[in-house]
Amino acid sequence: MTDVKATGESGNLVEVRDLKVHFPITRGVLFDRVVGQVKAVDGVDLTIPRGKTYGLVGESGCGKSTLGRALLQLTRPTGGQVNFDGVELTGLPPNRLRAMRRRMQMIFQDPMSSLDPRQNVESILVEGLQAHGIGADRAARRDIIAKTLDAVGLPKWALSRYPHEFSGGQRQRIGIARALVLGPELVVADEPVSALDVSIQAQVVNLLDELQDELGLTYLVIAHDLAVVRHISDVVGVMYLGALVEEAPSDRLYREPLHPYTRALMSAVPVPDPEVEDRRERILLAGDLPSPANPPAGCRFHTRCPWAQPTRCADERPALRPIGESRVACHWAEQIASGEIRPHKVTAQIVRPEDEGETPGIVSAPSEPGSFV
Ligand SMILES: Nc1ncnc2c1ncn2[C@@H]1O[C@H](COP(=O)(O)OP(=O)(O)OP(=O)(O)O)[C@@H](O)[C@H]1O
Ligand code: SF4
Ligand SMILES: [Mg+2]
Question: Residue ranges of region Disordered (predicted)?
Fold first, then answer.
């Protein structure tokens, strides 16, 4: 983590406003007709100061990768704005967007499938340099590549080797080198360590941290594992069904989560102190994540929320509003924090697949006594 460099008026490298990415659902034998929309990202506001790390967490399918891709315009948003260093990216013509892309790179989850097995490391790294016209000649490009390899801790002999000749951790270093060789300012790392052994994960997270210090990088780090983003992030945003439900400075979020969904996520993270671990409140969420093609009305979390109230929760969508240093999308956050509203049992609501995208089709499943499932 580095200090914010006061470049630009606001010091923010990225400003996202009301970002939406909706994918059409089509059906038809001869002609496809649009029968619904998957609201993968549905109204996200976030800001990333230059040189800082924004950690994005949430369950599988909540829209994290789609948000990351939309930020880089790899998926074009349905609505909203993405401002990068004062330039509005949405609606930018392809030639201008291409020039901006050098400054915004992505690291992918699975280094094996994101690296072409037929290309050796040198050719993987030189590709981007040539595409963006970086380096006057071959010698200049080799020099840039050698420095990048050194920065990510790979030896020179790696240049002539192919991805399958490396271990998982080394392959992810190649993926990081491919992003960094272009000299980006923003790096979106989508689950950068999820495919790696636990013993290697810390090495790669530390490498990302060191590279940030050295190169003044700005990160959006996406993970479903809260432990991964905790130490590397300045601010953490928690996503649920296409929207942020809570955002707070990293320490604050882990110390005192305010949104019921964040509390449930945090309750699943083990605490190193055995006494605290024994006393720890565990919240098991009822049912699966509802379909983003057919999100619940009102608060999207109300079908699974152990604190849901008879008023407002089912019919009024809570805005992401400031509470202290955090932003929280819950009508009752203060009353939950003070203990005035206590958690209760929740009956799992199962949405049958055939109902997705059409009328809400909810069947009840009995809950286990004493749990929230
Ligand atoms: N190209 C696409 N066309 C249609 N639907 C899509 C497309 N890409 C993603 N989706 C849907 O959008 C929703 C969000 O997907 P996304 O991959 O962003 O989630 P995620 O939070 O990254 O999940 P994971 O943790 O599993 O990677 C999912 O319901 C997914 O099926
Ligand atoms: S608004 Fe209601 S349902 Fe939503 S998180 Fe808050 S208490 Fe739960
Ligand atoms: Mg993803």
Answer: 353-373
Residue nearest to atom 3 of ligand 2 (CA): 302
Q: Whose C-alpha lies nearest to ligand 2, atom 6?
A: 330
How far apart are the C-alpha atoms of 234 and 223, rounded to whole Å? Answer: 14
- CA 269, CA 75: separation in Å to the nearest integer? 32
Given 171, 205, 233, the domain boundary residue is 233
Distances from the Cα of 173 to the Cα of 152, 156, 277, 338, angstroms: 6, 13, 35, 46
Does residue 1 fall inside a structural domain?
no
pLDDT at residue 136 greater than cutoff 80: yes
Pair 219, 236: CB distance under 8 Å: no
Ligand 2 mean position to 304 CA, how many Å? 9
Q: Are 120 and 162 in contact (CB under 8 A)?
A: yes
For ligand 2, whether the C-beta of 302 sits within 6 Å is yes
Atom of ligand 1 nearest to the CA of 293: 29
Atom of ligand 1 nearest to the CA of 41: 14
- Whole-number Å distance, alpha carbon 144 to ligand 3 midpoint, is 31
| Separation CA 10–CA 5 (nearest Å) | 10
Task: Tell the residue nearest (CA) to atom 8 of ligand 2.
Answer: 308
> For residues 332 and 263, is the Cβ–Cβ distance under 8 A?
no
Say how many domains are in the chain. Answer: 2
Query: Cα dihedral angle (70, 232, 206, 189), rounded to 10 degrees?
Result: -10
Q: Residue 53: what are its φ and ψ, rounded to 5°?
A: -120, 125
Considering only CA atoms, which residue is closest to atom 2 of ligand 1? 23
106 in a domain, yes or no?
Answer: yes
The answer, yes or no, to whether any atom of ligand 2 lies below 6 A from the CB of 290, is no
Per-range mean pLDDT, top range of 224-233, 235-244, 355-364: 235-244
3-state secondary structure of 338: helix
CA of 64 to the centre of ligand 3 (A): 6
Cα atoms in the Cβ-side hemisphere of radius 13 Å centred on 285: 21
Per-residue model confidence (pLDDT) at position 276 = 66
Domain shared by 356 and 222, yes or no: no
Residue 2 is predicted with a pLDDT of 41
Domain extent, residue 52, equals: 12-233
